Structures are given as C-alpha cells and as structure tokens.
C-alpha cells in the first residue's frame, strides 16, 4: 500500500475544520498547483494522516486525531478554498 | 458505545509488551510519504553540530565499527515486533568519528524531508545505531534502506528511515510528528504517544 | 486544473451528517468468497450521491477504536449498503465480512465525499473497477439506470470466486477480466490498452460525443495502471475520476 486519494480523508478533515471539505480546494505552497483536496495523495499507514500535493509531492496538511481533539498542521498550503457562507 | 463482538487485534498485558501494543510477526511498512530509493553509491550522511560538519559516504560509514543487536521494536500505531535482528554503526562511534561536540539535542533528517528529534543521551547511551542490515540482509528501501536510524527503546517514528543527517544543538527543535502533536520523547513503556500524554 | 464542481451535499448540515450514529445490520449478502454486502438501517438516513462513502467505527470493550472508510454500493434511493472485501490480516474487514451478524450494529458517519461522485448528466459513462473497487461503481450504474447516458463497465478480479456482483455485471454486458484464472465467458489478463479502447469506443459509439466521463476505482496499483492507459488513450485528466483504496 502506498497512498490513497484525498477523498479518503474528507470525513475526518471536515469534522476537524467544521466545514464540508468535499468540494474544497487547496493551493500548494511549494509548487503553486491549485487542486481539489480530494486529489491529494494521502498516506494513512503512519502515525497520522499526511496529505501531499498530487503534483510535487510536498507535505500540505498533517492531521492527527488525539482523544477528542484534532491537531492540524497546514504549513504546506498557500490557500484553502471552502464552499459555504451565506446563500 | 462498544461494538458487540469486536475485540480488535489482541492487546496483551504481558510484561514484555508495552501498554496498548499488540505483537505482530510481520513487519508492517509505515510511511508518511513515498518510499525513497537511494543507491549506496549516492548515499551520504551529514553529522553537524553547527561548528564541525562531517559527511559519511557508504565506504566511510563501513570503516566504522559495526555491531549486531537483537531487540524488540514498538510502533506508535500499536504494533510491537519481537527479536528483530539489526546490524549497524553505533551512534556513539559515529559521533566520535565525526568529532562533534557535546550537545543536548539532535534533529535527525531523512531523504524525502522527514525529521524527528531526540535527546543526544538516547542516541549514545542506549542501543541506537545507523542500521544497514535487517535479519542478516541489506536493509530494504521500504524499511528505510540503505541506512536508517534505529532507536529501539523509543517509538519507532524516532527511528528515521533513509537517514541523511543528524544536527546537534542546545535546543530541541521539533521533528515531523512531534510538531504534528506527537510526544517529544516517545517512551513506549510510559505510553508517551501524544504531546498531551 | 479546474477544481471539481461536484454535487452540493447540503441537505443535512455537515455537523449532523458527520456525527457518529448507529447502523444496524438488517441483511447481508455474500458477494464472493471474500466479500459481502451489509444492508444497513440508519435512522434519519438521507439519500446519498452515487460514489460517496461511509466511515465505519468499531469500538472494543476496553475503548480501543478502529475506523475505516467503505464506499456505499447501493444506489442513491436504496437502503444504504456497503460491500466489504476481507483484507488478509485486516482488523476491521474480517469482522465485517465474517463475524458481525444481522441484528447487530456498529457506528458510521456520512455519507461523505464530493469528488468521486457521479452527477446526473448526458455524458457517456465508463466505469472501471478492480476487486472491491466495483462497490462505488455499482452505486453509480444503479443511479445512472434511469438516465440517458450509456454506461460501459470494465471489471477486473483475480478469479471467478473473487468477482463481486457477477450476475449484475453480466446482465449489464460488462467486460470482465480475470487476472489469475482462465474461465469461459471471461477475458484473461489485466486490463490493457486494447480493452480500454474497446470500452471507450463502446461509450462513444452510442452518442456522437467524445466527452465520456471515466470513473476508476480499485487498489492503488490498479488505478495507476488504468489511469496511465487512459491518458495514453487521450482521455483528458479532468474527465477522469480516480479512487485508490490502497
């Protein structure tokens, strides 16, 4: 097993951020690619959830679920675009 | 709410198994990124204390004394593996050859960008080594070959695969999982999984 | 690369939809030697979008928990179902395939996902699944049954006894490849460029268009293999939806 798609972590990421991440997009800090969160390369077989850019492979988001808290580091993304707000 | 009939993998309270761990016979491959494939002809390890910097290529590493150990290892994802056989260069011998000074902390780095932090005493006073063989054969890339750090008395995320650098200093900088919420030290027997433990 | 403008899933607020709730096993269907479908009773279940998944959480008596994601294999209007393939040495899948019985329950949250989702449209559909990667594709072909687009299905399994949805695939005229066994009525070997060209040609001969949407789901190696072939065949990246499950 190597990586899976970002789709696999939409659930925990949505809960962690309190927004539906199904349609969310991110911009990679390293290479500038704008892509759906669902397109991230996700590594699950490790102590947390590591989401990498589908183009350059650099780490974008790390999510660790600890008891009832989520620890999220997002140092690898330049921007995050989430659908929501007032309709 | 417990799921009726679900036990999960066996978690034993045997004195040989740290709390919350289960024993496995295979060797799970855990990684936060793609497997790095580094040829021994390309491989280099840089050891620095900020003043003295020494670089070890494959040949220079093999000029150092090697030791073999058989030890139990413990991964924070709840598996432990008994009696794993490793061969490599003890970190104390490496630091002697590098001629680096006495510092309290080390930040270890890998090909591919992974990092982890440890106290220097845990590298030189215990069984820590630069491991190049597992179970009598060259260490495979998926397990961190050609050379990985092995610190068997701490959770395995401290044993960085695809070792490329060790930087010594007075301050403890956090590595990849430590910055993400894992414990700075990671003692399996005290179940130091997370920073809050 | 354009970001997917997938279906808005806003019928139920995200916090409610993603809260853990109980799923009762109301029926089970053996799908192959190593997979079965669990039909679930979930209070307050709202219709899902074809291709979405559920997170499943099992809790041991000492509080130890294991969480996994499984694609919904039922059509959007049907009672929710997941199809689970037993993973050798797995922790959750053997319990769901071999142990849990009708009348027992576990926790789920969802439906989840907006990327590997089929939005009703007239574009021809090509669905390519390996092993239990057929599960979300079944949801899609059932959803698409009432719509005009032609649906072309390519399936890959190790052997006949590992193939899920065999009868349904046959009735839909699917191309089924067996990678580790030769059997009459099936094609032998991996999905290759010739197989893909046939599938794409089938999709496009039905309507005068080249805007087929291709969904590929399966083990990572399978998906990479098929995606590489699709790119070589000229399918645009934004016309592909890929789901790798490791």
List keywords for this structure.
A: 87 residues, mainly beta, B: 197 residues, five-stranded mixed β-sheet, 4 helices, 31% strand
Description:
- Chain A has 87 residues and is mainly β.
- Helices cover 9% and strands 39% of the residues of chain A.
- Chain A has one helix at residues 10-17, and strands spanning 4-5, 25-28, 34-36, 41-43, 49-52, 59-66, 69-73, 77-81.
- The radius of gyration of chain A is 12 Å and the shape is globular.
- The mean pLDDT of chain A is 87.
- Chain B is globular, with a radius of gyration of 17 Å.
- With 197 residues, chain B is mainly beta.
- The two termini of chain B are 24 Å apart.
- Chain C contains six helices and twelve strands.
- Chain C has helices at 14-17, 93-99, 134-143, 166-171, 193-206, 220-232, and strands at 21-30, 35-42, 53-59, 65-71, 81-85, 105-112, 125-130, 151-157, 175-178, 187-188, 213-218, 240-244.
- In chain C, the strands form two sheets. Chain C has a six-stranded antiparallel sheet. Chain C has a six-stranded parallel sheet with strand order 10-9-8-7-11-12, sandwiched between helices.
- In chain C, helix 3 links the parallel strand 7 and strand 8.
- The relative contact order of chain C is 0.16.
- The model of chain C is unreliable at 1-11 (pLDDT under 50).
- The chains are: A mainly beta (87), B mainly beta (197), C alpha/beta (246).
- The interface between A and C is medium-sized, with 29 and 27 residues.
């Amino acid at each position: 097993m190597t990586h899976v798609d970002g789709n696999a972590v939409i659930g925990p990421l949505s809960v962690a951020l309190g927004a539906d991440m199904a349609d969310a997009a991110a911009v990679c800090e390293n290479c500038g690619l704008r892509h759906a969160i669902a397109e991230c390369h996700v590594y699950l077989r490790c102590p947390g959830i590591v989401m990498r850019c589908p183009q350059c492979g650099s780490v974008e988001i790390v999510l660790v679920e600890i008891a009832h808290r989520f620890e999220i580091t997002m140092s690898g993304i330049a921007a995050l675009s989430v659908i929501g707000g007032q309709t | 709410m417990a799921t009726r009939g679900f036990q999960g993998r066996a978690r034993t309270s045997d004195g040989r198994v740290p709390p919350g761990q289960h024993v496995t016979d295979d060797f799970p491959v855990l990684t936060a990124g793609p497997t790095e494939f580094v040829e021994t002809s390309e491989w280099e390890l840089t050891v620095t204390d900020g003043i003295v910097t020494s670089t070890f290529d494959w040949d220079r590493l093999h000029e150092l004394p090697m030791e073999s150990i058989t030890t139990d290892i413990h991964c924070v994802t709840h598996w432990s593996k008994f009696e794993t056989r490793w061969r490599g260069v003890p970190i104390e011998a490496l630091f002697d050859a590098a001629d680096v000074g006495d510092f309290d902390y080390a930040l270890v780095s890998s090909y591919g960008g992974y990092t982890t932090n440890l106290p220097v005493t845990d590298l030189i006073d215990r069984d820590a080594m630069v491991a190049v063989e597992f179970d009598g054969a060259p260490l495979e890339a998926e397990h961190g070959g050609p050379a990985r750090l092995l610190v068997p008395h701490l959770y395995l995320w401290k044993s960085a695969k695809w070792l490329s650098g060790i930087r010594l200093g007075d301050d403890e900088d956090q590595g990849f999982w430590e910055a993400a919420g894992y414990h700075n030290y990671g003692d399996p027997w005290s179940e130091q999984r997370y920073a809050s433990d | 690369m354009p970001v997917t403008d997938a279906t808005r899933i806003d019928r139920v607020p995200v916090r409610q939809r993603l809260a853990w709730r109980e799923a009762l096993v109301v029926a089970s269907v053996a799908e192959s030697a190593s997979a079965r479908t669990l039909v679930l009773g979930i209070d307050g279940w709202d219709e899902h979008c074809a291709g979405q998944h559920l997170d499943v959480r099992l809790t041991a008596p000492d509080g130890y928990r294991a969480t996994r994601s499984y694609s919904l294999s039922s059509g959007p209007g049907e009672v929710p179902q997941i199809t689970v393939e037993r993973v050798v040495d797995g922790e959750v899948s053997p319990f769901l395939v071999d142990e849990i019985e009708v009348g027992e329950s576990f926790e789920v949250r969802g439906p989840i996902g907006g990327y590997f989702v089929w939005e009703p449209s007239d574009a021809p559909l090509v669905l390519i699944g390996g092993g239990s990667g057929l599960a979300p594709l079944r949801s899609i072909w059932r959803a698409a049954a009432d719509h005009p687009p032609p649906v072309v299905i390519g399936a890959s399994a190790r052997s006949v006894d590992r193939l899920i949805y065999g009868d349904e695939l046959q009735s839909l005229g699917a191309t089924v490849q067996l990678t580790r066994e030769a059997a009459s009525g099936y094609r032998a070997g991996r999905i290759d460029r010739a197989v893909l060209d046939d599938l794409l040609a089938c999709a496009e001969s039905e309507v005068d268009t080249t805007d087929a949407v291709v969904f590929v789901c399966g083990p990572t190696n399978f998906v990479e293999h098929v995606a590489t072939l699709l790119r070589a065949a000229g399918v645009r990246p934004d016309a592909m939806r890929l789901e790798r499950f490791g």
